[in-house]
Amino acid sequence: MACPGDCVLSSWSDWSSCSHSCSSKNSEGRQSRTRTVLGLPGEDKTCPAATALEEWRTCNDHPCVIFYWEASSWGPCIEDSSMNVNGTGYWNGTDTCAAGVQIRKVVCMKMGVGPVVPKRCPDSARPDTFRPCLLPCKKDCIVTLFSEWTACPNICLPGNGSVHTQSRYRIIIQLPVNGGQECPDTLYEERECEALSVCPTYRWKTHQWHPCTLVPDSVQQGMTGATESCGKGLEMRGVSCVDEYDEVAAVSECLRWAGPMPSRFRSCWVPCRDDCTFSAWSKFTECTGCGSQRTRKRTLTGRSRKQERCQKEDLYPLVESEPCPCDEFVSRPYGNWSACILSETPEQGSLQGWRGRREERACGQGLRYRAVACLDQQNQLVNPDLCSETGLAEDVCHMPCPLDCKLSDWSAWSTCSTPCGSGLKIRSKWLREKPFNGGRPCPKLDLKNQAQFTMTFCTYRVYEAVPCQGECGQYEWVTDPWSVCTINTVDKLPACGEGVQSHKIRCVRRGGGDQVSSVNVTLCDQDEIPPQAQTCTLPCPNECVMSQWSQWSTCPRPCDESVVRMRTRYMVRPPVDDRGCPESNQTETCILNTTCFNYYYNVSNWSTCQLSEHAICGQGTRTRLLDCIRSDGKIVDLSVCEELGLPQPWRLAMNCAVHCPFNCILSDWSSWTECSHTCGSKGVMTRSRTVLQQAHEEGRPCASQLSQTKPCPISPCYTWLLSDWSPCRVEGADCGEGRRERNLTCVVHWTDWPDSPQPHKAVEDEKCGDRVRKESEQELLQPCSVPCPGDCHLTDWSLWSSCQLTCLEGRSFEMVGRQARSRAVVVQVLENQDSCPPQVFETHPCKGGKCHSYEWRTSAWNENERSVWCQRSDGVNVTGGCFPQNRPTTVRHCHPPCTKPFSHCKQRGVCGCERGYTEVMNTHGFLDYCTKTPGADNKKADVKTSSGRLKPGGTTQIQDFFGEWSLQPLGPDGRIKLWVYGLTAGGFILILFLIAVAFLFCKPTKQSKSTSPPQKPLTLAYDGDVDM
């Protein structure tokens, strides 16, 4: 302790950092330390000089030309059999199965020169060249078992047929990872089917036609009759089945292997005696060129030459002409081009991977096809073989190949987003090429793939964010010693009292050693920046000098605000005389978030599934991080919570999986189907393929084209054309029973008959097939009748109705519907109505029927009447179909009925009065009676006054008396009053009295006998004569 009046000095400060890292001829490392004056001395004493308050020493005196070790980055982890790890574990979040080692290269370097021999560098500072590591688990490729072999044909093969094959495949369900076993090359196998026998060869053999045999009309009409000697007949020929050696075989063999039997019958004609007979046709004349005509002739023979009707050339032509056969044909394109179809040229004998086979022919050069119509000079369709071999036009086309999404390599990881605690670090990829034409898509916004995306100004970037832990307390504030306390006074020196002192503040990396360089101040915690200046007190010579305050004592954890903390100082120099010293102890209460803090753990959210380096799918790890949080919300170093021994119950890692992307896998194209139409322009061939495996994740999607079509050659269609029925003909009469007929003609057309837009042309019957069989299938002759005047007759059949199903509540329980048609009865004379036939209905089954619902429809009310009809769901009004019990009423009735005079039922369903009468209602709201509106006949009458005088219930007794006998024949209730009956009876009696009086006065007096005798009265009798 200093004596009173002595100069008081502080203790020496710590040595400063070395000014240089090494020594050279021009510079050397130096450190300094200082001490300050705490108390000024008395009058007879002094403080040491300023130079005595600072000390210096050398540091880092080793020369600057030094040798040092330089190490490269660690190499990949390779397997090391000498190290053994039992079981699996985790290393940096990756599943591990084996121990390995990492190697790096260490070289001795001379500063400013380069590598030198290792002995020049200190062996004690040599870095390690090996370190252990854990290898991620190897995962072999996993494929499914082969599928079943596709089916082989189980029938015989035609003699010129191709060899059939069958195939099977298997699917990759896991790709190899981390050097696991590669996938097998053979994922698709194909082999030839077992040899089948060649189909036997059978054919139909036809023989010569027999002479024409007459077919009587009675047989044709199904009636008995006399045998004809001429007319229409049939020719017959034999048809047999032979094998490839022309030996007779069973007919069933040809029906199975050679198709339908050729026609055995054809129509012929045996001329009658009166028929016109002709010679055989001559040969056609020579043709003069393409497009010219050729002719042939015949002549009349026998008695036909003398018959006038046989010489009519319009009925019996003797010359026929036809266009000459022309070898010049015109090809005309028809329809649209097909889609581009890739040529199929599989390499024989090689079994490539099935995925490779499909991707190999997914694009490139192919052909598209278009139908070509082959036409002759008359613009008629002919066999396409006359114009080209295939009947199709071909054009080279190109199918663009799919381009996958291509991204750049990952950029370097960014620094952790937070300097302290859990944060994120990010790396990114740039879009180099967009997907095109069904290529693999770019990664989706999917947490399973740890990707986030942005699209700004046509720039596509993929980000990957992973959790990271920022190292808390990595940087710290460092302060230099406080400067001398500067007294703000103008008094004479030495000055004493209160002043100000300051020091420098730097932000440095913690643990940097003696040679510490400052870093950016933003890296240090701004909330904990030390003060740069403070007030100070320089005691005067006679005053007490105290030491610096000690550090505050620590508050308890957790914070207890009932506890105080304390700091102390001691006396360094006693005062002169009896002057007192300042306090030596200070206390303050522990205040939460000010002088003391509580701490707790906080766990972050789970990260996305983290895979091993270069892996794109498979097993991974999800992690989450711990943060140590101070009670004021500030994140501090984890070691704080660890030192406090806080409980940590959370699991920080768990296994996860990212599904691997799989490309879509398609089957092979099937064989082309047969043409959908055997002739015409609508025929197409189709082939298809199916999806064996849908694309998964970012795999290449399935092609949209799963079926392809190409046109068939346009061959002419030959069809029997049935003409309309002729008018009914009655032989020898104008009405009665007769016959009508129609003809059968073979025509050629382009497409399905009769919807062909091209005109048709009659051709030879042989091109349409067996005419006799067709005639037997069609009704060419039909009885008919022509009604005579006054007869009842039926109209022609109506058109068939639409196909209808029997339905219940809109659902049908049958597959076959019914169609109907009818014939109406035409009644010409009403007297014959009873003898008319009934209306005829006819139904037959049909397919493709629809369920119809039926609903009653009504018109608006008109005078309490309306129309009611049944309507089908397609808008057709029908008879029947609706339930009769649900039929709405057509007449509206009032209840109770309107029986009062001059009343009627209104449209509202209540009783009202006729025009000119006013309703009087009873207490129940029903019509009581109708009273005539006063002045209804005289429009100028005062209705208001009259209605007031005649208001029911408002009259006096006198008025009632006179009103009872007033000249009104009807009472208020509409009934005839009693005085009307009395007046009528009195009038009748008066008329009888007048007749009696008149009879008495008009009676003649008796005559005397002298008068002439009485005349005999005249008796009149009606004899039926008209004159009477």
From TrEMBL:
Membrane-spanning segments: 978-1002
InterPro entries: Spondin/Thrombospondin_T1, TSP1_rpt, TSP1_rpt_sf, TSP1_spondin_dom, TSP1_TSH7A-B_C
A GO CC annotation given for this chain: cell projection
Compartments, as annotated in UniProt: Cell membrane; Cell projection
Principal subcellular localisation of the protein: membrane
Keywords assigned by UniProt, alphabetized: Angiogenesis, Cell membrane, Cell projection, Differentiation, Disulfide bond, Glycoprotein, Membrane, Repeat, Signal, Transmembrane, Transmembrane helix
SUPFAM superfamilies assigned to the protein according to its UniProt record, in alphabetical order: TSP-1 type 1 repeat
SMART domains: TSP1 (SM00209)
GO biological process: actin cytoskeleton organization; angiogenesis; cell differentiation
Topology class, membrane: Single-pass type I membrane protein
All copies of domain Thrombospondin type-1, residue ranges: 896-935
Pfam families, alphabetized: TSP1_ADAMTS (PF19030), TSP1_spondin (PF19028), TSP1_TSH7A-B_C (PF23308), TSP_1 (PF00090)
Spondin-like TSP1 domain sequence ranges: 405-448, 664-717, 792-851
PANTHER family cross-referenced by the UniProt entry: SPONDIN, THROMBOSPONDIN TYPE-1 DOMAIN-CONTAINING PROTEIN 7B
Protein name: Thrombospondin type-1 domain-containing protein 7A
Organism: Triplophysa rosa
